[in-house]
């Protein structure tokens, strides 16, 4: 990877001299056609509804074939059923008060999450449900390894 600094916050190198700036090279590599509207239309993903369960919904927020992970958001009114399918899954409660993750294998409580807390479910966890413990709607960020991700991407 190569990058060109256009500004370096007046930082000094180990000898106390200003760090080199590559403004000429940097400006030659900027695509000025990539305006704010172009970025919004082409680079910022629009959430896509993947599935619904009653009044609950799961949205895809981001996933690309060249990235290892996906990011989704679950809008939780009551409870959500899912499974790990051999991959770890990370949850973060980003809106709402409290949820509970329950194993469907034996209905045991696995963990309670409060606002701004995160938890990683192990890949072998299997089927589970997430239960909203309050009347307030919740939103959870769900992240995991993309099922389409290919190890051959590492060889590029």
Name the beta content range.
Answer: 35-45%
CATH class of the largest domain: Mainly Beta
What does the radius of gyration come to?
22 Å
What's the domain count? Answer: 2
DSSP E strands, number? 10
Structural summary, described in words:
- The chain is mostly beta strands and 156 residues long.
- It folds into 2 domains: 1-44, no CATH class; 48-155, Sandwich (Jelly Rolls), CATH 2.60.120.10.
- It has 2 helices and 10 strands.
- The longest helix is centred in the first third of the chain and has 7 residues, at 36-42.
- It is elongated.
- It starts with 22 loop residues before the first helix and ends in an 11-residue tail after the last strand.
Short key terms for the protein model shown above:
156 residues; mainly beta; four-stranded antiparallel sheet; 8% helix; elongated
Summarize this, please?
It is built from 2 helices and 10 strands, in the order ααββββββββββ.
Detail the topology: elements first, then pairings.
Elements: H1 23-28, H2 36-42, E1 48-53, E2 56-63, E3 69-76, E4 79-83, E5 89-95, E6 98-103, E7 109-114, E8 118-121, E9 127-132, E10 138-145
């Amino acid at each position: 990877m190569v990058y060109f600094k256009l500004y370096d916050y007046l930082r000094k190198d180990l000898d106390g001299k200003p760090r080199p700036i590559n403004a000429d090279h940097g400006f030659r590599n900027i695509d000025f056609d990539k305006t704010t509207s172009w970025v919004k239309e082409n680079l910022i993903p629009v959430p896509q509804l993947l599935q619904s369960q009653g009044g609950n919904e799961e949205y895809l927020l981001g996933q690309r074939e060249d990235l290892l992970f996906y990011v989704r958001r679950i809008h939780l009114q009551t409870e959500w059923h899912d499974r790990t399918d051999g991959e770890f899954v990370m949850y973060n409660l980003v809106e709402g008060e409290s949820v509970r993750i329950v194993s469907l294998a034996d209905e045991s409580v696995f963990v309670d999450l409060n606002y701004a807390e995160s938890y990683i479910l192990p890949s072998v966890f299997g089927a589970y449900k997430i239960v909203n413990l309050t009347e307030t709607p919740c939103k959870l960020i769900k992240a995991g390894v993309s099922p389409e991700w290919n190890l051959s991407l590492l060889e590029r």
